[in-house]
Amino acid sequence: MGFEFAAQLPADVSLDLESIAQSLRNSGRYEIESQSPSELKLRYAKQPRCDEWPEDIAISLEGSQLYVLVHAGTKTQRALLLDDLAKAVSIASNRAIVFNEL
Question: Distance between CA atoms of 5 and 52, rounded to whole angstroms?
Answer without folding.
Answer: 21
